[in-house]
Each structure stands twice: as structure tokens, then as C-alpha cells.
Design goal:
The protein is an alpha+beta fold. Among the domains are: 23-129, Immunoglobulins (Immunoglobulin-like, Sandwich); 132-174. It is built from 2 helices and 10 strands, in the order H-E-E-E-E-E-E-E-E-E-E-H. The strands form 2 sheets. Strands 2, 4, 5, 8, 9 and 10 form a 6-stranded mixed sheet that branches. A 4-stranded antiparallel sheet has the order 1-3-7-6, with no helix packed on it. The termini are far apart. One of its GO terms (molecular function) is signaling receptor activity. Residues 26-112 form the Ig-like domain.
């Protein structure tokens, strides 16, 4: 009997614990944070309020030099906004268009519940740093972009040059191969030979020797003699 009673009590505790865990408990969900913003820059702070559908009011609190300021209305330097995340949660947003040194300090969300109780989240520390010169920043960006462009141009130029060399070699090799295929194979020319001396051509009729030559007969001249009659 005693064991059964303990078992029933344990089950009741487990069920009640689960029901209580499922219940919504109002709270301000904000983490401790530290941000650094250059002077003249913009800043956005956020804080989530879990109200579980109950009435509530909330605003931002600014703490600086041991003084406390409530930011309830928009101004020329900052804007307040609320964003509904769900039926149980709402986000409070604080936006600075341009921060200056006087905006440095602690920022937090403070909520007042319907019962009159107040709750506040963790602080966010804002530090204002020296402003970055605009001209120097633009010059730095220009130099970086110009350097990247020059490097890219050099790399592309070298790659194109290498491709042209390879293409030219391939074309030259293909042209030489085509020429060799189109021309017939020429036989090797023989080495020059020494000229053979020519033999004197001899007539089939040999001239008789000079001693055997006969003298040519002298020609006979005939003349006529006429006698006159003087006797």
C-alpha cells in the first residue's frame, strides 16, 4: 500500500511539473552585450519581451555618467519601434541614425506589467570609437580594387599569351605535316662522278702516210701558133 501511494505521488509531481513547464512566464529576454561603433555611424539595439498575451508597457533606458534617462519618444537622433514576433513575444528596437560621443553608455529594456510590477533586462554597453576618415576609406577601397584589377589583367594576359603560343605551335606542326604528305618522296640524288675523257673518233678510212702520197700531175697547157705569110 505504501509503495502504491509513493508511485501515485510521483506521477502527480511529474504531471504538475510538465504543466508548469508548458505555461508562459513573462520576462525580458536580453543578453549582456558590448558593442563598438565609430563616431558618426549607425546603431541598432534589440530586446525581446515575453508578455504571454497580457497587457504591458515598455521603453528603453539609457544610463550615462550615473544619470538615468528614459527614451520614450522618437527624436532627431534615434527612432523607437516595436515588432510583433508571436502572440506571446514582442521585440523592442532602438535605432540610432548617427551616433556621437554623448551616446556612449548603458542601454536596457524596462517593462511594466499589468500588476504594476517592473522588470528590466540586461544592459548593453555602447562604446563610441574614433571616426574613420571618409577620404582615406575611399582611397583604400580604390587602391584595393585597382590592385585586384591589375593582378587579374596580368594573369589573363599571361594565360592568353601562353594559349597563343600553344596554338601557334600546333598550327605550325599541322602545316608541316600537311606539306610533307602532299609532296612526293624524292629519291636521293647520286653523288657527282668525275667526267670520263672522250676518245678521239677515227675515220674508217685511214689517210695514207705522207711518203706514199703521189704527186699530183701537172696540168698541160695547149697553145696555138700561127704563121704569117711573108714569103
Amino acid at each position: 500500500m505504501h509503495d502504491r501511494l509513493l508511485t501515485v505521488l510521483s506521477c502527480l509531481c511529474i504531471v504538475l511539473g510538465g504543466l508548469s513547464a508548458d505555461e508562459c512566464s513573462p520576462a525580458v529576454l536580453a543578453r549582456r552585450n558590448k558593442v563598438y561603433v565609430p563616431q558618426g555611424g549607425s546603431l541598432s539595439l534589440k530586446c525581446v519581451v515575453r508578455h504571454c498575451g497580457d497587457p504591458w508597457t515598455g521603453n528603453w533606458v539609457f544610463l550615462s555618467n550615473a544619470r538615468r534617462y528614459e527614451l520614450k519618444e522618437n527624436s532627431d537622433r534615434y527612432h523607437l519601434a516595436n515588432m510583433t514576433l508571436s502572440a506571446d513575444e514582442t521585440m523592442l528596437i532602438l535605432i540610432f541614425l548617427r551616433v556621437n560621443k554623448s551616446d556612449e553608455g548603458f542601454y536596457g529594456c524596462r517593462v511594466t506589467w499589468s500588476e504594476g510590477l517592473m522588470d528590466q533586462g540586461h544592459w548593453t554597453v555602447v562604446n563610441i570609437t574614433a571616426a574613420v576618415p571618409t577620404g582615406r576609406n575611399l582611397l583604400h577601397r580604390f587602391l584595393v580594387c585597382a590592385s585586384a584589377f591589375l593582378c587579374l589583367t596580368v594573369v589573363l594576359g599571361l594565360a592568353c599569351r601562353q594559349c597563343l603560343r600553344i596554338t601557334q605551335k600546333i598550327r605550325t606542326a599541322s602545316t608541316q605535316t600537311h606539306d610533307r604528305r602532299g609532296q612526293p618522296y624524292l629519291a636521293l640524288a647520286p653523288l657527282p662522278r668525275r667526267p670520263v675523257p672522250k676518245k678521239r673518233s677515227t675515220s674508217p678510212f685511214k689517210a695514207p702516210p705522207q711518203s706514199e702520197r703521189r704527186p699530183e700531175p701537172e696540168s698541160t697547157v695547149y697553145s696555138s701558133v700561127r704563121f704569117s705569110r711573108w714569103m
